[in-house]
Amino acid sequence: MAPAFSQINFKHQSNRSFTYQEAIDNFKILADEYAEIELVETNYLTDVGRPLHVVVYNNDKKFKPGEIDRNKKTVLFINNAIHPGESCGVDASVKLFSDLGKFHKLYPNVVVVCIPVYNIGGMLNRSKYNRSAQPGPVECGFRGNYQNLDLNRDFIKTDALNTEGFVQLFQQWNPNLFMDTHTTNGSDHQYTITLITSQKDKMNPELKNYVYGKMEPMLYSEMKKKNVEMIPYVYSINKTPDKGIKDFLETPRYSSGYANLFNCISFISEAHKYKSFNGRVEQTYELLKYLCEYATRNTNDLIEVKRRADEYSKNQKDFYLTWSLDTSKSQKLPFKGYALESKKSDVTGQAMIHYNRDKKVDMEIPYFREYVAADRVDAPDYYVIPQCYRSVAKRLELNGVEVKVIDRDTILNGEMYRIDNFHSIKSPYEKHFMHDHIHVTPSKQSIQFYKGDYLVSTNQKNKRFIVEVLEPHASDSYFRWNFFDNILQQKEWFSDFGFDPVAKDLLVNDENLKKSFEEKRNSDTTFAKNHFQQLYWIFLRSPYYEKTHRRYPVMRYFE
After folding, report:
1. Which of 68, 96, 242, 503 lies 20 to 30 Å from 404 when distance is taken between CA atoms?
2. Nearest Cα to Cα of residue 273 among 153, 146, 124, 130
3. Fold of 4-315
4. Contact 271, 230 (CB under 8 A)
5. Helix 511-523 to helix 531-540 angle, to the nearest 10 degrees?
6. How far is CA 118 from CA 54, 61, 507, in A?
7. Is there a contact between 75 and 177 (Cβ–Cβ < 8 Å)?
8. In 216-345, alpha helices (H)
9. How far apart are CA 13 and CA 529, in angstroms?
10. Are strands 382-385 and 404-405 parallel, antiparallel or unpaired?
11. Measuring CA to CA, which residue among 306, 361, 371, 302 is closest to residue 334?
């Protein structure tokens, strides 16, 4: 039989990319040729009706998560074509697995798990117009999936079937390392590939010390030895990188931010859109290959640091929920860019930025890597969730969280949040009207729960995930993603002619209420002239105002 490599028609050198079917067929060729590779058609359907595939490399020829000795093997999980217009990872992974099969003795300690094509619907939607100004490939897929979702915003809300499949595969494999392959177009510079490392200030401290103290510096230095010079993802502070770049804060809606919740060392490769497709594929391949080499050489370290990180998370008592960039701290970063010039647009006649590629410029730019943590909370012993929020319980279980059911009606004394303030975006974002600027006030309350309601202990392995989705003011909480919007609408109101005598009695019988009301009238002339607002002010402070309005329905229960 001819070697598998010779049976595969690599197309990236001629500026063409694999179609969805070609990618799957190529992995079938490799799986047929090499006993160390297996291609699995999973039972997880995507939004377009096609199942996710997983290709697995293991020198021991064991291909199920439960068969792997995790005391001796590390798992690298690769995700491709989440944005199918950025498909260099698909072609690079075919080349990678061809190498893994041919040279399997060089990679004895790593299991490589790869989703060849994640956004299948977008991959099938091929066109030469899907990525404007991208020099190749000639045709590529589309960013949105079959229901026009950006899957790299879906890892918490899980609107897509693709995401349901991904999170289950991720939980089954529980990888040590994760790489999501992308292409970026935000600026122009000399580098063909850039890298996002999961942001350090929201990372488990055990992982932070290891990744930023050893692994990340080695990635950059070893790739340079391969003649692949990388730079951190060029996320400019202003419009152009010469003023400085900042770390990308990938919250859990993004793949790497999601993976980081489970103490998986996570990266996103961002090849540069304006470089050749061939160059993007080759450098993505080199990066994936080096990750395999690193995992093989540092197996014991990777296993141990994940063990320590998991132990830390299990015992962690307090959590920070949000982060903001610290612009007072930066470091110098050598940067190879192009001369920036002002050019008159040929279309509008207006001035625009022009990167002059004929004038290469080496410079030092500020690199902002520090984020300040805020919104610290103590994790409760349990979260109690009413059973009417089945979609929340389902997502918790998909992510490996044990959700128990209360076996009888009961009254529990615990901590409840009131949503004091929030802001909703005016235009839909990924099928949602997200909330931000969330402010809450906790209070001790006695709440009636019923048989069938959900009880979620925080004494389990995915504790950080539980906290970050159930604390309403967390960066990507279920509350932010509209899973609890029903509590934001007041149900009971009043008619002025009916409530006016009631309001009068309330003021007569409550001196403190009357005093506060008069102070409000005297200090706020607009209020004093508004008949309805005065009655509503009293209504909100009366027993008639529903306690459930803006009361976040998930109890924080402490034993």
Report:
1. 68
2. 130
3. Aminopeptidase (3.40.630)
4. no
5. 140
6. 10, 24, 63
7. yes
8. 216-225, 255-260, 277-297, 299-315
9. 75
10. unpaired
11. 361
Query: Is the dihedral angle over the CA atoms 69, 70, 73, 74 positive or is it negative?
Result: positive
Cα within 13 Å of Cα(515), Cβ side: 3
Residues 6+ apart with CB under 8 A from 22: none
What count of other Cβ atoms lies within 10 Å of the Cβ of residue 445? 14
Q: How many CB atoms lie within 10 A of CB 60?
A: 15
Distance CA 208, CA 266 (A): 11
Q: What is the pLDDT of residue 6?
A: 53
467 Cβ neighbours under 8 A, 6+ residues apart: 319, 321, 377, 379, 458, 474
Return d(Cα 422, Cα 552) in angstroms, integer.
Answer: 12
Residue 185 clears pLDDT 90, i.e. is over it:
no
Structure tokens at 445: 């309350």
Cα(285)–Cα(110) distance, rounded to whole angstroms? 17
Q: For the segment 71-130, what is each residue's pLDDT rounded down to a tens digit?
A: 999 999 999 999 999 999 999 999 999 999 999 999 999 999 999 999 999 999 999 999
Q: Write the pLDDT tens digit of every residue in 24-69.
A: 999 999 999 999 999 999 999 999 999 999 999 999 999 999 999 9
**Mean pLDDT for all residues in the chain:** 97
Check: CB of residue 309 under 8 Å from CB of residue 208: no
The answer to whether the beta carbons of residues 182 and 271 sit under 8 Å apart is yes
Residue 199 token pair = 């942001």
Question: Does 356 have pLDDT greater than 50?
Answer: yes
Listed in sequence order, the DSSP H helices in 375-510 are 390-398, 463-470, 496-509
Closest CA to 176 of 97, 258, 61, 260: 260
Q: Which residues contact 190 (CB under 8 A, 6 or more apart)?
A: 336, 337, 338, 360
Rounded mean pLDDT of 517-539?
Answer: 98
pLDDT band per the 50, 70, 90 thresholds, residue 231: very high
Asked if residue 317 lies in contact with residue 379, where contact means CB atoms within 8 angstroms, the answer is yes
Whose tokens are 């450098």? That residue is 283
- Contact status, residue 101 vs residue 36, Cβ threshold 8 Å: yes
Which residues, 6 or more positions from 6, have their beta carbon under 8 angstroms from its beta carbon? none
- Residue 405 pairs with which residues in a beta bridge? 454
Cis peptide preceding 232, ω within 30 of 0: no
User: What is the chain's alpha carbon radius of gyration, rounded to the nearest angstrom?
Assistant: 27
Q: State yes or no: pLDDT of 201 exceeds 90.
A: yes
Query: Cα-flanking dihedrals φ and ψ of residue 113, to 5°?
Result: -110, 125
Delimiting residues of CATH 3.40.630.10 domain(s) in the chain: 4-315
Q: What are phi and psi of 432, to 5 degrees?
A: -135, 155
Which residue from 394, 365, 408, 421 is spatially nearest to 550, judged by alpha carbons?
421
Classified as helix, coil or strand, 391 is helix
Confidence tier at 7 by pLDDT (50, 70, 90): confident
38-41 contacts, C-beta under 8 A, 24 or more apart: 38/63
What distances in angstroms separate CA 345 from CA 201, 274, 338, 354, 357, one per listed residue? 41, 19, 19, 10, 17
Q: Quick one: pLDDT at residue 143?
A: 98
